[in-house]
Design a protein that fits this description.
single chain, 151 residues, mainly alpha, rod-shaped, E3 ubiquitin-protein ligase TRIM38-like
Length: 151
């Protein structure tokens, strides 16, 4: 039995040695896992910070683009409103001219009347030529906006 006891003692010592190695491996693995966890936590913080910077940048860009768009809209609408007023004034001038010409036509029939009509028409052509410059504003705005015909 002595030999058997000796073998058992040796087996127990080997098992204890294996247990010690397991404890050491477990301790090292725990240390590594804590290190890996910290590393990934740091990476997560960096990614979040980078995306916060990107969001801030995009918000600033959006704000600037919206401000530029608002100013351009105000500018174009102002020009078109001015054009609208000038066209309305021109319409009133034409109506007054027609009334004046009708009065003169009722009063007399003269070559002077023909000259006044020609002068009135020349004035209106000048105003319409001036106003067609605004058409480019209207067209450039509509080129940049989506139409129902095109996606």
């Amino acid at each position: 039995m002595c030999v058997l006891q000796e073998k058992l003692i040796q087996a127990i010592k080997r098992i204890k040695h294996e247990v010690d190695e397991c404890w050491e491996a477990e301790r090292e693995t725990y240390i590594w896992s804590v290190g890996v966890e910290r590393c990934f936590d740091n990476l997560e913080r960096e990614v979040r910070a980078e995306f916060q910077n990107l969001h801030r940048f995009l918000d600033e860009e959006e704000t600037m683009d919206m401000e530029r768009l608002k100013k351009e809209k105000e500018k174009r609408v102002k020009l078109l409103r001015e054009r609208e007023k000038k066209i309305a004034m021109q319409g009133r001038d034409l109506e007054r001219g027609i009334a004046t010409l009708n009065n003169k036509l009722a009063e007399e029939d003269s070559p002077k009347l023909l000259k006044e009509i020609q002068d009135l028409l020349k004035r209106q052509v000048f105003i319409f030529n001036y106003l067609t410059d605004y058409d480019s504003i209207y067209l450039s705005c509509h080129k940049s906006l989506p139409s129902p015909d095109r996606p």
